[in-house]
Amino acid sequence: MSRSVSVLALVAIACGTTPSPSSSAARPSAPISPIFVEAGFLEVPPRTVTLKGAPVSIEATGRLFYNLQPALEDPADKPIFILSNGFAAEVVRAFGTGPFTVADGGAVVANMAPYTAFANLVYLEPRQSGYSYDVITSRAPGAADCAPAIFNEYVDAADYLLAALAFLDAHPQLQGPVYWVGESYAGVRLTWLLAYLRGRWDLAPYGDPTLAAKIAGTTRATSLMAGQIFLEGWLAGGAHTTAITAACTDPVILAGISASVGTTCSDACACATANDRSLYNYAYTLEHETARETQASEAHMDPASAAMLLGVPLTSIPLLASAERSQGFRCSPPDDTLPPEDALVAALGPLPGGQAYYVNYSPLYPGKETGTPEDDWRTVNLEGLAFVDNLREVPTFLTAGARDLVVPPRSLAPALEAILGASQVDASSSSRLGVIYPDGAEHFVDLFAYPSAGHMVEMIEPTELSGDVETWVEAL
Q1: Dist. CA 310–CA 88, nearest whole Å
Q2: Cα gap 449→462, rounded to integer Å
């Protein structure tokens, strides 16, 4: 289909019109079910896992919210993109990927370069993030249900993968290859998720018999590891923390921010703060960046706007309204950065105190933890080693938003050098990064540059990113 997708086609999909099913000639033994726009919850079961050698009992059922936006043509055979931000899927859904997008100012408008032109989109919210919530029916939830032993990077990735596999099991009519798309902290989630899929449990201090059995029993004919797409992802663990700090004095970054603010800067991060610029995009004022993020939240909390983004009215989504929602709980309630959810309450019914329909972060978000965090992703290098191991086996797409000071693209090579040694990393080109493995094999990955973008590439350069992703997928 041409990239100039008509507004009528976009509106038809977003309103829940059934796309024409593909021909059943290739699969004569079973009828193909129609593929609709849909939204709902995927349940992640209670289970016992092992974290750093200690057993952990997860007693709550996780209800993880998903939203399927089918490809505009032949969805049965199109690639399946499973997307999230670090916490909710708020930004990747609100900006530049789906049939509708949130314009500067907050209006929800048709997206002229949606990924649905070439892929099925499954926006999946992690545990207790976005519309997701937890449920315990046998007792009242307590502090142990919100502990860092449950809300940490390893369990987060496992929960997400269990939900994704449940979605794929429930949608056998979608037979395309699976690509995992993650922005920011979601780089951590996808790194561990792919390590689990690859059977590299030895890379993580984590064991999960329920998930291991699910992976072993999957019967999907198509690849679950077709590719990983990182939008300014956190990829190298504690070494990335150190390298990000050092990137604030990188000469290339300093030249860029100095030109933007009109003064000579010696520390890009300090200079951005002093000049009221956002670390997410140093060309944006902090006020404007905050407004854009708030607009994404508002679009999910206003029933009319949410219906356009999700493609279905909120009142039609099972398990979302107050009758079921009031039985659930959240460990991190909404703070004053979120708009009031009066409109959601009016549409879906009142909730008990401490509960909320929509929160754009989770107990994994720094500062929202309910106990001392198990933040290996910021302090040790286990994730970096897993990323390098995955890199050799899983096709990888990396963005390079030039104005990003949160996870500057120029921080990745130094982070990997700190983990592997400088001789094992080839950073001689600004457009690709190479890793040299112990057996002498070298693997290169392209860096797709977006000079006007910061952390949220899909918000600033959506058409360019969409085109690059489509071309990259078609070339595999």
Answers
A1: 14
A2: 13
Q: How far apart are CA 65 and CA 63, in angstroms?
A: 6
Q: Which of 325, 374, 370, 332 is nearest to 352 (CA)?
A: 325
Q: Could you tell me the pTM of the whole model?
A: 0.93
Domain boundaries, the chain: 7-21+32-245+288-475
Q: Are the beta carbons of 239 and 211 closer than 8 angstroms?
A: no
- Are 36 and 132 contacting, i.e. CB atoms less than 8 angstroms apart? no
Alpha helices in 49-103 (DSSP H): 90-94
β-bridge partners, 39: 67
Closest of 118, 126, 230 to residue 180, by C-alpha: 230
Confidence of residue 447 (pLDDT cuts 50, 70, 90): very high
Residue 10 clears pLDDT 50, i.e. is over it? no
The residue among 167, 79, 87 whose CA lies nearest residue 121 is 79
The residue-averaged pLDDT of 340-349 equals 97
In angstroms, the CA 414 to CA 392 distance is: 19
By residue count, the chain amounts to 476
Fold observed for domain 7-21+32-245+288-475: Rossmann fold (3.40.50)
End-to-end CA distance of the chain: 19
Instruction: Answer for the pair 315, 118: CB distance below 8 angstroms, yes or no.
Output: no
Own/partner pairs for 20-24, CB < 8 Å, 24+ apart?
20/73, 21/76, 21/173, 22/74, 22/75, 22/76, 22/77
Nearest residue to 296 via CA among 107, 65, 37: 107
Locus of tokens 């972060």: 361
- Three-state DSSP state, 113: coil
Q: Given its phi and psi angles, is residue 8 left (phi above 0), alpha (psi -120 to 50 degrees) or beta? A: alpha
* Mean pLDDT lowest among 150-154, 280-284, 286-290, 371-375: 371-375
DSSP 61-73: EEEEEEEEE--SS
Q: Is 232 left (phi over 0), alpha (psi -120 to 50) or beta?
A: left
